[in-house]
Amino acid sequence: MQVNWREIPAARNSYAVLGAACGSTGWNLLPVTQPEADITCYSLNSINERRYRDEIAAADCITVTGGPHATACWREVAAYADYVIVGEGEYTLPSLLADLEAGRSGHIPGVATRDGYEPVKSSVRLDAYPAFSDVKGYVEISRGCPFACGYCQTPQIFGHCMRHRSIDEIAKYANRHGQARFISPNAFAYGSDGIHPRFDKIEHLLRKLTHEIFFGTFPSEVRPEFICEESLALISGYCTNTKLHFGAQSGSNAVLARLHRGHTAAEAIRAAELCSGAGITPVIDFIVGFPFETDEDQEATVAAIQELSRIGKIHVHQFIPLPGTPLAKTRARPLLPGTEKACGDLALGGKLTGSWNDSEIRFFRRRLQ
User: Fold this and answer.
1) How many CA atoms lie within 13 Å of 6's alpha carbon, on the beta-carbon side?
2) DSSP characters for 276-312?
């Protein structure tokens, strides 16, 4: 039985992770640019799902879908795909492939079909699976998030309890290549409950790495309240990156509270100032157009963007109501003319990137070093 992986740019790391998990149980996922027999697997997000929906529905082979969109909207996706992996795939995908090869129905926990869905009863233990194998990927050091930000899919998919890959396992994969880059909802939460940092464990991890270390930057980030003299000293002392990426999201405390962000606008500004004082350039995310945002809230965000653009780089994108989140059934509010002008002016000056006026364009991320 041949198992294929549909090449999708946004799913490259998913291919590395699931290819390694399947390879450890004897399945080789062959990369393809169109659906091919016997089975073709897809990883979909809510931005690209419309592009591949018709292709999956018309495919002359068994189709298996997963990813954040498939997890949040499994009933919708099961209407045009044969099987939908809901949630984590390291255990479920190889189990489904084995079930299908044995000639059974594929109706196993964690897999949705048109006939229904039975959830899995446990979460993935990261150390049980390789970070990647022949296809290089980023090392996922943590999964899950204790916060419940209204726009974010992470805790909805992976839960509110953080799980961490062990230091030895991280080093095993990170030291295979000249650069070590990581995936985590908050790199500075490694080894902790996600609320109370354990910088001693982070230092233990960094000491184990032998090559260039990029921590708290692409493709990961940190939370502003975790930025302090101790955490910045770890970046300066062990890491190659001279930038640190974190989310401020709004300049309005009312918006931050309603989002359940768990920090204030002042903490985000303080984090940027601490970065600058340590010789590290802050790269700061903002979201504009929240559905409950007042004119005053949006103006406060613009003021924060303008202030922080003097000491760092700003990344702005328009609010996107992602399925499965508390704000899934809302719509972005229009931007004020002053917001569009301020973002445009800063972009022309090289201080700001993003897609603040088009919700169909997922925000652009460069390799930040």
Assistant:
1) 28
2) HHTT-EEEEEEEE--TT--HHHHHHHHHHHHHHTTTS
β-pairing, 29-32 vs 3-6, is parallel
* pLDDT value at 201 more than 50: yes
pLDDT of residue 304 exceeding 70, the answer is yes
For 39-49, the pLDDT digits (tens) are 999 999 999 99
**Which residues neighbour 19 within 8 Å (Cβ) at sequence distance 6 or greater?**
5, 28, 29, 132, 133, 134, 135
User: How far, in Å, CA of 272 to CA of 224, rounded?
Assistant: 8
pTM above 0.85, yes or no: yes
- Please state whether the peptide bond connecting residue 282 to the residue before it is cis, i.e. omega within 30 degrees of 0: no
Report all structural domains of the chain as residue ranges with CATH numbers, in order of start.
Answer: 3-117 (3.40.50.280), 138-355 (3.80.30.20)
**H, E, C per residue of 160-188:** CCCEECCHHHHHHHHCCCCEEEEECCCHH
Q: Give me the helices (H) in 209-263, please.
A: 229-238, 253-259
For the beta carbon of residue 303, count every other beta carbon within 10 angstroms: 14
